[in-house]
Amino acid sequence: MDLFAVFKELQQKSDTKILLVVLDGVGGLPLEPGGPTELEAARTPNLDRLAGESALGLLTPVYPGLTPGSGPGHLALFGYDPFRYLVGRGALSALGLGVDFRDGDVALRGNFATLGPDGRVLDRRAGRPSTEENQRVVAKLQEAIPRIEDVEVYFYTESEHRFLVVLRGGDLGDGLTDTDPQKTGLLPLEAQALDEASRKTARVVNLLSARIREVLRDEPKINGALFRGASRRPSFPSMTEVYGVRAAAIASYPMYKGLASLVGMEVLPVEGEGDAHEGKLKALRENWESYDFFYLHFKKTDAKGEDGDFPGKVAEIERFDALLPEILALKPDVLAITGDHSTPALLRAHSWHPVPLLLKAPYLRRDAAQRFTESEAAKGSLGHLRGMELMPLLLAHAGKLLKYGA
What we know:
Layout: H1 4-10, E1 18-23, H2 38-41, H3 45-52, E2 55-60, H4 70-77, H5 89-97, E3 106-115, E4 121-123, H6 131-144, E5 147-148, E6 151-159, E7 162-168, H7 199-215, E8 224-231, H8 239-243, E9 247-250, H9 254-262, E10 266-267, H10 277-286, E11 293-298, H11 300-306, H12 310-328, E12 334-338, E13 355-360, H13 374-377, E14 383-386, H14 390-397
Parallel strand pairs: 1-11, 1-12, 2-14, 9-10, 9-11
Antiparallel strand pairs: 2-13, 3-4, 3-7, 3-8, 5-6, 6-7, 12-13
Helix pairs in contact: 5-9, 11-12
């Protein structure tokens, strides 16, 4: 149910500040029955202390049993119905990178991959190359493949193994299936059109995939490409329009910047490479007085989970815990810490499991949870929420919603 009309009617100005921290893919699973999850294995004295002063609960980002992508997972956290407000990964990357992305264009998110002699996928991320290596390969492809048939092709570096392709011209639809099989040991998939308007797009993408393999055949690791999330440019109502807040986003990776800009957040510049923790905190401090809603994103918890690196994910959780005192020093009126989905190292992929949610605000009831973990969050007073239910809760605690009804 779309409640945007209700939120517009109930908007109330206040001087309070909301900070939503998203630890991407933070939920996990034990490596063996009875063992700890990544959160339970991590040493998190600052999060533990904060949990003792906060309310906790579990949050299902999209719907029970559905494994969400980062797009729907985040949109739900921002209060947007992920079944109504649909956006492909390609459009998010294009918006996040700020490239020339016009009405009628189709954007596709690409993964550079390592393919074996038989064409099967050996590594879906080509060993996570450096961004500089990515740029070299993108330049090589752009020179070799300026167009497919009458369609212009534009390549852009995102980061590491990730890149973006924008297709322009020729009445292109965006209804097509992905070419990424999501597992190693399988052949890349053929793009299939889901509607008549996308038949040409599917043909162009399949020709493009074959041409990329030809151009990169002598590369030792980056010798193929996997595509997903074909999408045109969408248009969503802004958070200022719906909630009446001045919203800012602090993220390093283009997709999350794209998500934020799509809902009308101002994307703040962040110094540093990769997840750039210190650069993010600097951006948060320097812009603290200018906005009343902040979205602060940390990526590496998800990346380590996708790599199956349990200790690495634990280390990223502990790395965030060490930064927490600097965040708390800003004294946000309402602070929420959660994830957009679970990425257990055991599964090496996103999963359907709920994530813990921590809420620190002035008007909370007593809570039995004492740590920011899945098992402790299950004891919390917030209960079990859906992703879309978080935003109104944050607004209410911040005094930004009037009473509903007489």
